[in-house]
Amino acid sequence: MRLVWRSIGGIEEGTLGGSVRLLEAACATALHYADLVHGALADQGYYESHAQNKTTEEICTIVNNLEYVRRSLSEYDDDHILNDENSRQLVRGALGTLECRSVRAAVPLAVRARPPLRKAVFHLAWSPDSLPTQQAITPLLEFLDQHLSSLNTWLLPRAFTRALAACWNAVLKEVSSQADSGGAEKPRVYHHRLKEALDLLAEFFHAEGKGLPMTDVHNTEWKRLEQRMQYHQAPTEELLELWLEDRLADQARTPLPSPYGSILIRVYFNHDSLCVEILSARDVIPLDPNGLSDPFVVLELLPKRLFPKTHEQSTNVQKKTLNPVWDECFEFAVSLEACRSPQATLALSVWDRDVLTADDFAGEAFVPISRVPGVNSHAPPDPLRPIELPLMQLHDRGHPILQILESRNTDKMAIEFVKKQKLRFAE
C-alpha cells in the first residue's frame, strides 16, 4: 500500500487518469485493510465483550494501526494534489470510513474505564457535606490522570485525542447517572457538588488548551447535563414555571392548522379584572366512539404565586361536536401588577366530557397575559379582535423537568403536577 501511495506522489502532470486509478487503488486498499481488521475483531467478539480478552496495550496497537493507515491516506487530502473534485470526494469518503473504524475500535478504552469511574463519581457525590468539592473530587482526578497518561504513552496523537473525547463522554454519562439516581434521600449539597465537579472536570479535560478544545468539552451531552443539574437544584415552584415557559415556546413553534385543532378567544384587562371570552374551537379531535366529542374548556391562571386567590373556571359542555361554539365570558379578579409579570399565563385546556369514565384530554393552549390589551400598552388597540391558538398535546415523555419532578416522590406539589401532565400525552 505504501508503494501505491509513493506512485501517486510520483505521477507527473498530464497523467490524471493514471493518478486517479492509483488513488482509487490506494483508497480501496486502505478500506480493505480496515474491513479485515474490523471483521477479525468482530469474529473474536471484540465489540460485544468490549475487548475483555485483550490488554489495553493490545487495543492501543489496533487503534494505532488503523490510525497509521488513515494518516498515510490523509496526505493526499490536499487541494494541490487533488485538483479533481471526484478524487477529493473519493479520498475524503475513505478517510471518513477509516475515522469511524478507528473510533469504534477505541470504544473499549472508554468502556473499561467505566467501573472505576462509576465508583469514583459515587464517592464524590456522597462525600460528607463538610468536605469541599476540590477535595472530594481528588480520587476521580487521580484515576483519570493515571488512565489518560497511560493512553497518551501508547497512542498516536490523533488516536489519543479520540480516546480523550470518549473518556470525557464516559465521565459525563457517569455524572449524569449519579445526578439522576433515585433511592436514598440525598445530602443537601448533592447536586450543587456535582455541578461544581462538572466545572472542574471540564477544566481538567481542556487542560489549558492542551487537551480537548472547549467546544468539544461543552458538547451536546455536557449542555444536557448542565441543564439537568440546574433543574435538580431548582425548587419545584421554579421548575413548574420553567415548564410553563417551555410550553409557551412549543406553542410559538406550532403552526395553524394544528393536528389537534384550535381555539378562538378574546382576552383583555378591564378595570380590576382579566376578562376572557371563550368563543369557539374547530377541528377538535374525536374522542368518543361515535367519532365526535363533548368538549368543554378549563381556564386557569398560572403560576399560583402570582394568582393565589384565583380558581379554575370552565365552560359548559357542547354535545357531539368537533367544532363547538361557547360564546362564554369569564372574569378573574387580579391586579394589573400581577398580570404584567413575564410569567403570568392563562392556561386553556380542552376536554371531552365522559359520564362513566374520566374526561379525556383534547388539547391545550396558553396566553402570555403581559401581552394582552389593557396590560400591555403596545398591544393591538382593538381588544375585541379574537385570537386563534393552536391546541397542543404532550409528546416528550422523557422531558427532563418532568423526570426530575417525578423523582421528587415526597413532594406533594411535584406529585400532583406529574399526575396532571401524564393525562396530557398524545396516544
From TrEMBL:
Residues 255-382 form the C2 domain. Residues 134-243 form the MHD2 domain. It holds the Pfam family C2. Keywords: Exocytosis. GO terms for cellular component: secretory vesicle. SMART domains: C2. GO terms for biological process: exocytosis. Belongs to the unc-13 family. PANTHER family: UNC-13-4A, ISOFORM B. This is BAI1-associated protein 3.
